[in-house]
Design a protein that fits this description.
The structure is a homodimer. Chain A has a domain of about 325 residues: Thrombin, subunit H (Beta Barrel), CATH 2.40.10.120. Chain A contains 25 helices and 21 strands. By secondary structure, the first copy, chain A, is of the alpha+beta class. The relative contact order of chain A is 0.19. The first copy, chain A, is about 50% helix and about 15% strand. Chains A and B meet through helix 9, helix 10, helix 11, helix 17 and helix 19 of A and helix 9, helix 10, helix 11, helix 17 and helix 19 of B.
Amino acid sequence: MMARQRWVLGLIVALSAVWLSQADEGMWLFNNPPKKQLKEKYGFDITPQWLEHLQKSSVRLGAGGSGSFVSPDGLVMTNHHVASDALQKVSTAEKNYMRDGFHARTREEEIKCPDQEIDVLMSIEDVTERVNAAVKPGMDPAAAQKARQGAINEIEKESKEKTGLHSEVVTLYQGGQYHLYRYKRYDDVRLVFAPETAIAFFGGDPDNFEYPRYCLDVAFFRVYENGKPAKVDHYLRWSKDGVKEGDLTFVSGHPGRTERLNTVAHLEFIRDVDMPTRLNVIRRREIALKTYSDRSLENERRARDDLFSVQNSRKARLGMLAGLQDPAIMSRKREEEAALREAVAKDPELRKNYGDAWDQIAQALKDYREIFLEHYVLEFGGIGTGFNSELFAIAKRLVRLAEEKTKPNAERLPEYSEARLEALRQSILSEAPIYEDLEIVRLSDSLSMMMEFLGADHEVVQKVLAGKSPQHRAAQLVNGTRLRDLTVRKQLLDGGLSAIEASDDPMIVLARTVDPAARRVRKVYEGKVQEPLRQGYAKISKALFAIKGTSIYPDATFTLRLAYGPVLGYMENGKKIPPYTVIGGLYQHAENHGWKEPFDPPQRWKDRKGKLDLNTPFNFVSTADIIGGNSGSPVVNTKGEVVGLIFDGNIYSLVLNYAYTDELARAVSVDARAILEALRKVYDAEELAKELTGGK
Amino acid sequence: MMARQRWVLGLIVALSAVWLSQADEGMWLFNNPPKKQLKEKYGFDITPQWLEHLQKSSVRLGAGGSGSFVSPDGLVMTNHHVASDALQKVSTAEKNYMRDGFHARTREEEIKCPDQEIDVLMSIEDVTERVNAAVKPGMDPAAAQKARQGAINEIEKESKEKTGLHSEVVTLYQGGQYHLYRYKRYDDVRLVFAPETAIAFFGGDPDNFEYPRYCLDVAFFRVYENGKPAKVDHYLRWSKDGVKEGDLTFVSGHPGRTERLNTVAHLEFIRDVDMPTRLNVIRRREIALKTYSDRSLENERRARDDLFSVQNSRKARLGMLAGLQDPAIMSRKREEEAALREAVAKDPELRKNYGDAWDQIAQALKDYREIFLEHYVLEFGGIGTGFNSELFAIAKRLVRLAEEKTKPNAERLPEYSEARLEALRQSILSEAPIYEDLEIVRLSDSLSMMMEFLGADHEVVQKVLAGKSPQHRAAQLVNGTRLRDLTVRKQLLDGGLSAIEASDDPMIVLARTVDPAARRVRKVYEGKVQEPLRQGYAKISKALFAIKGTSIYPDATFTLRLAYGPVLGYMENGKKIPPYTVIGGLYQHAENHGWKEPFDPPQRWKDRKGKLDLNTPFNFVSTADIIGGNSGSPVVNTKGEVVGLIFDGNIYSLVLNYAYTDELARAVSVDARAILEALRKVYDAEELAKELTGGK
């Protein structure tokens, strides 16, 4: 599955787009679409109206996925596995919506989801000049980083104040361009429908990233405004006929991160340092969660979404690492890099301005190695992987926010800038359940990892453990903190710096204790790694613009992109894999696996088998260029009608992180026809089917 | 579960025995039993006859566990999880004895098990002087190591030639003493009875190393001589009455490795380097096997025993690491070390002879760090963890054997010495099934790990991968080799060096290619790590003998030991955990977990519930000092009668690797009464029950 990969370092542009031109490559900007390619290869004229409609019908889900409006009443379609964060949070020991599914038969039954936000991209503005103007010639990297971040914080704040819209400056082409994205944000999001996990994720981890598939990976939310279903101007209509092999389709969604322009040195860094460390951490988390889950049914329920998420990451990252460990891919990358460097070297102007980019990047990565583990453990993602605990994350945000708020906006860490405060406040005051036993399992494992990665004698480790074993310390912290109580969080949030400084809550004390060291390593990271990488890659991007023009797409940034390609099967080990599966195949696949979990469909699907049209197309593959974060993206035909719903890529698609290929790599979708068939014949959700089809 | 931990580095003596005297501590040598302790604390007089009978009734299983003769007709009792290697090897896609159990109703139905050997310890001889005499003053460590190993190879060869018995020189007290153990070896071992995994390992990984428990972890083999059941003079009789809380019991078995005398520097090395690396490898193997298993029922069957084994290791090692990461345990170790060093420092003679031991060990570990990964990947266990493949292991043994056989016995690597050739030949010609798909999964994962651990540019890595990705290379090797064919192996085995050198089998070529580098790192390891450690620890042991006398027990060495202690419950989080569970508790535990695998007992147990006496004691705990390798050990009463069968330790027992404690740590056994009850009422195995009870 392809929910956004939150851990990817991610940087970079589509060099490949330059060398490969016939393939359906590209995650295109809505303000720089592949007009020419579509016209030439498919004779399709893309119009501004067509684009605007698709853009404003597409949504981004805060939890890390994509979706679309599919009715004028704010109905949002996405994947079950994108909705699983929400399903987990609204489930209890008594009502397990994750396992059993959910269906609101009336609007009154729709359940409000904590922490769930849905964004719609309303406008894009190029602010490159203003951002770049903040950096004065001769500034050292740390000063340049600070100045640039300050300008971005200010642009976002101004925009928010002026328009009321959630505003984000997006770094595109690794710093080649900066665009201001304005989103209409819905934060009253309610759950309408979700099937059982056993059919949404039929085949489970074994079938994840595989094909053929038989998954009804769909869920529906509805956005509300002022307590009523929101009326939306743009939504996608349901296709009556669906698509067939060869038909051109489009995907509008939010690919998370690609790293296609990474230099070879950077890819080697990922292969040798970054990915092995992350996989080590992912594996230990997977096993810690799995052993916790296996101890009781209630544990299993509590850890379900976390466990899915790490298993998904593990499978995705193993695929990426396999790509990096494949000499064939690395030599292709080496050749591409050599060709570009040669082109730059040949032109005196380019050489002078951009010729040192590769060495600059290599040096930054060398410096990164020095602090990699410390940064990773203490500050990665703003929290640090050494503290795998919701309660610690809340404490750290409270501690930092109190300090950051005393600074001018331009000088703050970006995630504490004015434009982000509202979302931050919501996350701190989230009503999502926190389970102490699970917190202890997660925290003790990550503290043990910290001891392993930094060494038992490391000053921070000694302070964090305070003379206890990781297990004892985790139990002490989790049992001792009062941060599970929302009123306590609110007091600390509203009390500002003095409240934080006066607190004796052990988790707050811990966050306070760790913060100076975490800030220190972050500063080194920003000055010696992040900024030099940004500068180096901006040079490479500019060199590319100079050589090839700007009609190229930037690497993915979890912002809205357009991808395209036909429905198309492929050859695997000499065998043709057809593009479609049908509902009947579900039962056959279950039979082949002895109807054993995770190949055991829900009882309802067994009972209703006779009612279903077993020839209904169930899942299909296409060549569209997608990656994690595209989960839940609508697949539309040339008329802009829904024909499917992206939910995965096959195993060969994992390499798309580094390079596009359409030989074997495929995007995997739920067919829109299967969604209707299931709603009507398995779930008796006629009213929902009607809403989708406009009453038909 | 506690099958021998094959990966433990293991070295060292029982310092704790010196400081703690009242607890039931100790894994005692049969030629140096705890006479005084038993007399003083329990008023029990241990006699030479009692000891000899127990010794010769006890057996060691090659696969890494313990057992005992329980009838005059060579019937051997051990754990199901010790027998699982054999069960795996005799199972096929059609006959899954691992899952379904096995019961030979007649002797003709008993199944011969490939690779299964059973050893009975017949005599012990102290050869310390002769081994030490080989090392001349002034020899450097590498020369000393070689001379000592040469003497050992010769002693073993002589003994084997003289007595026909399998002969092993055991290094005790880390080099303080060397004893020659002579075993009668049975290599015609047949499977008599095994229950279903679902009851043998009820609760699975979640309940592993936990208590209370409800497992029928028992299996029976029979040893044959000349095609007939062997007649044995010594076997254990079945207790009529069993034991109750407080009764003294004895455990006679083969604890694998303990590391109780490790210096603090050594424990830190394990905590910081050794254990994290191994856990990283264990976790990746667990996940690779689990994802393979989950893809089909047949895959699950094929990987069952491997998967169990890594899960068991993971849980055990996490427990050990938790001990090492606990400052309480480390400070106790620091205090003990300081006390001993002070005692040595005070005595001029001791100081002169042994005072430098701790620094010598610290230096050896420093040197070990330098080569740790290379040694681990290329040569650990004589094969190298980078080559996780049965076919590669066969190739490497063939390649090495051909070369080693050209050398005089005294100069060979120990595992290729004359006394070991017979067993080696058997392992190379084993008929155990090898599954190509599973081999590819294991090998590609370990080659990927090799690339990660040694670096993509490492000379050996480049040679091993030969320009391919780990996945492609693994597939190429496994699909290309002809070593699955026993006749090919036999030709290479009999053809000697010329056949090996002429072979173009890709796996043989690989083993040949890697061997020089593997031998190089092994030589460094032996000279700079193994020998200095041995010398250092021999000094510490001698210092201990000098200060405390020789009535102490050596660290575990997978050789026969006697442990003792009463059946005894314990307090956990303020709650009394009773020493016994009863059969009725099984059904309650299943109910609490929704009868979901691995908490779902076999159908047979559900059907026969009404026939069973639900109050029959099922599992019990005692304070006996045991560790991995003790699995399958008989538990006997003071009359030497079977009252139970060791199969596990509780979670608190994992720390016994480093230090004994009887506060919470307990050995876990199947009660002999439950075995009889189940044989009679669940399995209709009356003839077996009769054989156990002497016809009663």
